[in-house]
Amino acid sequence: MFGVVLWSDLDHGKAVIWCEDQGKLAYVTGEQADLCQDMELQAGDLVKFSLRMQSKLRFAENLKVVEEKSFADLPDSLRAHAPAKPAPKEPVLDRGAEIIPFRAKEQPRRSAPLPAALVGA
User: Fold this and answer.
1) Is the Cβ–Cβ distance between 13 and 34 less than 8 Å?
2) What architecture (CATH level 2) is domain 2-76?
3) In this structure, are residues 77 and 38 in contact, taking their beta carbons and an 8 Å threshold?
4) Please, what's the b/e burial string for 37-72 (b: 16 or more CB within 10 A of its CB; e: otherwise)?
5) C-alpha to C-alpha distance for 59 and 94, rounded to whole angstroms
6) What is the tens place of the pLDDT at every residue in 40-58?
7) Strand 46-54 relative to strand 2-9: parallel, antiparallel, unpaired?
8) Three-state DSSP string of 92-121
9) Where are the domains of the chain?
10) pTM of the predicted structure, to 2 decimals
């Protein structure tokens, strides 16, 4: 598969690749980190690689740089065309709601004492 490096961190040997199939991004980490550092992958590099799936993530392996900085403007172009973040929602203000205190239900009052037959039962 071919892809373009969108981001790389040479100090840690990590990179993120936009894949030609327009699927999920592919990550360079772990065992490939040393190779990434040796190749000095930069954003915009066109690379060829194989994919390995692990826990629903795609990892790039067997990386080879096809052309350095062939798409150097791609990361900035993507940022420029990204949708703007929506403005934070304003909190709903309390507009004078009436607070009703909780009161325990009053027990019904009995007008006459219970008959002795019911009390002793």
Assistant:
1) yes
2) Beta Barrel (2.40)
3) no
4) bebebebbbbbebebeeeeeebbbeebebeeeeebe
5) 50
6) 788 999 999 999 998 999 9
7) antiparallel
8) CCCCCCCCCCCCCCCCCCCCCCCCHHHHCC
9) 2-76
10) 0.61
Report the Cα 25 to chain-centroid distance in Å.
Answer: 13
Other residues' Cβ atoms within 10 Å of the Cβ of residue 74 = 16
Tokens of 43: 């954003």
Q: What pLDDT does 8 receive?
A: 87
Residue 70, token pair as written in the block: 């062939």
Nearest to 35 by CA among 56, 49, 46, 25: 49
Mean pLDDT of the chain: 79
121 has a pLDDT exceeding 60? no
Query: Is the separation of the CB atoms in 43 and 7 below 8 Å?
Result: yes
